[in-house]
Amino acid sequence: MRLTVSRKAHFNAAHRLYRKEWSMEKNNQVFGKCNNPNFHGHNYELIVSITGQVDPETGYVIDMKILADLIKVHIEDAFDHKNLNLDVPEFKDLIPTAEHIAVVIYEKLRTHLPEAMALQITLYETPKNFVTYAGDKY
Amino acid sequence: MRLTVSRKAHFNAAHRLYRKEWSMEKNNQVFGKCNNPNFHGHNYELIVSITGQVDPETGYVIDMKILADLIKVHIEDAFDHKNLNLDVPEFKDLIPTAEHIAVVIYEKLRTHLPEAMALQITLYETPKNFVTYAGDKY
Amino acid sequence: MRLTVSRKAHFNAAHRLYRKEWSMEKNNQVFGKCNNPNFHGHNYELIVSITGQVDPETGYVIDMKILADLIKVHIEDAFDHKNLNLDVPEFKDLIPTAEHIAVVIYEKLRTHLPEAMALQITLYETPKNFVTYAGDKY
Amino acid sequence: MRLTVSRKAHFNAAHRLYRKEWSMEKNNQVFGKCNNPNFHGHNYELIVSITGQVDPETGYVIDMKILADLIKVHIEDAFDHKNLNLDVPEFKDLIPTAEHIAVVIYEKLRTHLPEAMALQITLYETPKNFVTYAGDKY
Amino acid sequence: MRLTVSRKAHFNAAHRLYRKEWSMEKNNQVFGKCNNPNFHGHNYELIVSITGQVDPETGYVIDMKILADLIKVHIEDAFDHKNLNLDVPEFKDLIPTAEHIAVVIYEKLRTHLPEAMALQITLYETPKNFVTYAGDKY
Amino acid sequence: MRLTVSRKAHFNAAHRLYRKEWSMEKNNQVFGKCNNPNFHGHNYELIVSITGQVDPETGYVIDMKILADLIKVHIEDAFDHKNLNLDVPEFKDLIPTAEHIAVVIYEKLRTHLPEAMALQITLYETPKNFVTYAGDKY
After folding, report:
1. Which residues of D touch B61 (CB under 8 A)?
2. Backbone φ, ψ for residue A120 (5° rounding)
3. Rounded to two decimals, what is the model's pTM?
4. What is the ipTM metric for this complex?
């Protein structure tokens, strides 16, 4: 019996979208007001989905307390109330678009999960915009 | 033309997570406060999704009134305002985790749907925790 | 400058609605399926609203961390994953309707807030049913 | 790196479900109150999901402003505050069920997107009923 | 002990905003695309709030089943899947703006409630637009 | 006939909570992680509520297009994708707590509305925290 279990979480962060090697003009053209040099921010809503076999003893795919703790330690503590560009090392040379944030979250959590479990990340940047990433298998 | 149609429903129920053959200590260690012997409860939010061909005459995959009635008779009437452990026969020897409840709902509805229609169950136990089950094909 | 600040929280609990001194028949007539002797349950969504002057130094009516902690210690820890009838002393002789739960929450929090702050409790028993209580001044 | 990005939109419209060549009696039997000759209506909530490679320069699968504009011009301007049966040419001979509306939206947007991007449409007709369509590949 | 209890409901309807005695030009100027002669429509979300004393025997302000039935019989059955302009007598000479619909709902329910209970109607025409009406006392 | 009409809007912004004249230590003690010198951010959800008489000719308290435009020009264009501390003059010497932002929005909109209309601002800083301000009359 293979199921997917999902857990919601969230973090609030500032960011700016721009390429260092581009002119301000080109950055404005591509990223518009997301290129504000003083930053803007979002309440990011996160859904972490894990697919695996149900443990016949517990009836769990994964204990939700364990999953919630993994998300807290590796994602919320690292991203919440942070400036993604300045405070989070993964975005030193990576533009913090929603796409890239989802990939970074995927890779941070992937290493803490058994190989047999599939992982999918859904990240809402605003209530109207969200992205989904599920690694290679996607 | 193959589409998926989804219908939301809900039921309120009490449950307790524990294995009869385990000690209270072991049950507390695995299930934490979900092992309260006096039970706790949830507003379960259910999404039933059916994938099939669009009927060229009606423009429907399935008549939503028929689907809503199936859910009412087989799920809501059976689970709503019930104690899952004590009142629902399917959980007599099956721990009522969200995973198991989703599997039971899948199997109860599966028998009432044509073979050619695929079925997927999404069950929210809380606004932050949910599971998805789609049977063998998953 | 007088404002209202609100904080959401939630707890999951089992309950049963019935009057001990009434017959089962009369209880069924008045409380319907809410009188299931084996209990049923809900995800209660809570909004605690506090009205007061904005502190000119901090720009806060009340520090949200302090309010969140008050709610956690006095409400969530007391009600979450509990059977309201059996585990919560306030409901030993009080039927745990949404109305009564809101009044109990109000009285538990009221004693921990300065007199000058007004308090209002909104409690969702289901996504479709909720109650609001604001004490005497209402 | 292949991801899915999704954008929400909405439009309000009137419609009626019926087959011209059927009797009023048969239409009532199949479509029930959706066959009201004076029409009824909905707030349609739309999710457009696009799957593709992340552009290594911008970190975007697709610029959300471009996607939002495509949706505005081809869907919202065409459907919003319209009578789907009378004002929208695609439904002249096609019953405007949620299934058919999703297919029409898919086909209208598909022609404006690069071949390499996959497209999926989710359409909520009411908060409880929704459909998903992803073209041939589904 | 005085509390407010609220119950959500919904109905789907078509409508058109225009004054019969005005020219098409003036109606377009005032009502814009809401003046589509072929109608458009909405999923109206309704919250009915009743304020009163808690009954010391039941712990209820009003039995939610009774309130839900009142809403079903007098509002949902009268408005759901209807064209407000053509099918609902109250709007024969009254423009069905959200404001007017809320007032009509208030007046229809007011007559079925005890004098001692205060009534408030909240009506969402879209997820972004809503109105609140509470009669004279407001 | 006096009603309240409400319109939702939103903006994304960065901010930092701190008092210039306080030490970093004292700012951390009072504002915690909200005092990150590199800023963090939010998706602010705004509800603007206006209470007034219904115009007997239009059936409107206020034309929602006019209200939506007022919010766009005076609030969204001024705050969206901005750093509240650095880019918005009103917060040059005012800590941008949710309370203060609500008061600033109130005062910016108040001057553009007729005296006879009452105004109330509800501002969600996160899905769990929100504030309400209605000026002097509150």
Report:
1. 99, 131
2. -135, 135
3. 0.96
4. 0.95
